[in-house]
């Protein structure tokens, strides 16, 4: 690798949103060989370039070449910031303080990722963040009262920070002027082999002994179930190829319904001194790259790109096919407002929502 330089931030025009609003692409350079590109449209992480052990540099997230391509690609949430409520709300309804609220259904009769016009389809405002040890940009968005049916004006900020030790950190903040519900996450699709092998070229570890079984609409049913002696036991690094083989998926009703993993794991460990707990570890089988996910959130949704159907072509010129990459979405539990037994996602005036997720690359000595 080249000699380290100071972290750097710059931006450039990058097309237009469907309403004609200009979109910017912000480049973050750690100064040590890791770079990222973030769009103001959807807060999308378009590229995350990470060196391999042999120094080869390639993006480890799926991306599309233009803002217009993202706007046309309804559904996959490629690399986007997701809100106001990540994951699903059953039938698009939830109670809050004795009142019922409705979010437009956009997934099998349920509301997914904030409804059909969620935060992934908004143009965020971006400002650079001075930091001598990292390249950072702060994205802000004002979601008005009644937006997609959610009560309260929500003031949201997400800071992308790419440090000299190669760690990418996302810090989420939100405040409201009325009681509301908030569940924010990031929807990057990770492929550490940079398109060479897809998920068959990876092992995955998830730090959770329980997961949430779901019905045909991906809504949680019953209490958390133990992963012991099931395909959901990923407590040790597990090759994904055999788990996602057609015969293996067909043999497990929970996997068959989704076409692979699209489930929430409850994280086992408590937060460390920095507030973060381990969530997952993804490793290329050839040892070229490894990634750890750490978070302040209580759960992680593992989604293995089951709905990617090759209709989209990525920035690398390759079609985006099923099981090409995995999303590791740190968050609260799906449909929490309809499950009082789950950790609350209610945010009230005077409170501040804060969440942090860090992506570390231990093959580079990060973290």
Automatic annotation (TrEMBL):
One of its GO terms (cellular component) is cytoplasm. It comes from the Bacteria. Signal peptide: none annotated. Pathway: Carbohydrate metabolism; hexose metabolism. Belongs to the aldose epimerase family. Its EC number is 5.1.3.3. GO terms for molecular function: aldose 1-epimerase activity; carbohydrate binding. One of its GO terms (biological process) is glucose metabolic process. It catalyses: alpha-D-glucose = beta-D-glucose. NCBIfam families: PRK11055.1 (NF008277). It holds the Pfam family Aldose_epim. The active site is at residues 187, 329. Keywords: Carbohydrate metabolism, Isomerase. Beta-D-galactose binds at residues 87-88, 187-189, 262. It comes from Streptomyces albidoflavus. This is Aldose 1-epimerase.
């Amino acid at each position: 690798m080249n000699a380290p330089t100071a972290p750097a931030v710059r931006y450039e025009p990058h097309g237009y949103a469907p309403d004609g609003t200009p979109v910017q692409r912000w480049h973050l350079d750690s100064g040590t060989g890791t770079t990222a590109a973030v769009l103001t449209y959807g807060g999308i992480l378009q590229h995350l370039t990470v060196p391999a052990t042999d120094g080869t540099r390639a993006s480890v997230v799926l991306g599309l070449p233009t803002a217009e391509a993202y706007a046309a690609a309804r559904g996959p949430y490629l690399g986007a910031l997701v809100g106001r409520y990540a994951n699903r709300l059953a039938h698009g309804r939830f109670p809050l303080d004795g009142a019922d609220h409705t979010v437009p259904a956009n997934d099998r009769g349920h509301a997914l990722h904030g409804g059909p016009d969620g935060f992934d389809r908004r143009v965020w405002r971006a400002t650079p963040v001075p930091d001598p040890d990292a390249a950072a940009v702060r994205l802000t968005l004002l979601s008005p009262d009644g937006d997609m049916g959610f009560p309260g004006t929500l003031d949201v900020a997400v800071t992308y920070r790419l440090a000299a030790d190669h760690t990418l950190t996302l810090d989420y903040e939100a405040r409201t002027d009325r009681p509301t519900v908030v569940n924010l996450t990031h929807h990057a699709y990770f492929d550490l082999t940079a398109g060479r092998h897809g998920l068959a070229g990876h092992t995955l570890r998830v730090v959770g002994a329980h997961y949430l079984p779901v019905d045909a609409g991906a809504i949680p049913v019953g209490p958390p179930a133990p992963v012991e002696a099931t395909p959901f036991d990923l407590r040790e690094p597990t090759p994904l190829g055999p788990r996602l083989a057609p015969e293996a998926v067909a043999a497990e009703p929970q996997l068959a319904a989704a076409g692979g993993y699209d489930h929430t794991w409850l994280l086992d460990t408590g937060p460390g001194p920095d507030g973060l707990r381990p969530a997952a570890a993804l490793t290329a089988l050839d040892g070229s790259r490894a990634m750890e996910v750490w978070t302040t959130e209580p759960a992680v949704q593992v989604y293995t790109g089951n709905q990617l159907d090759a209709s989209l072509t990525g920035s690398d010129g390759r079609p985006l096919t099923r099981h090409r990459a995995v999303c590791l979405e740190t968050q609260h539990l799906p449909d929490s407002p309809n499950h009082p037994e789950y950790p609350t996602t209610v945010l009230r005036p005077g409170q501040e929502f804060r969440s942090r997720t860090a992506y570390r690359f231990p093959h580079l000595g990060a973290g």
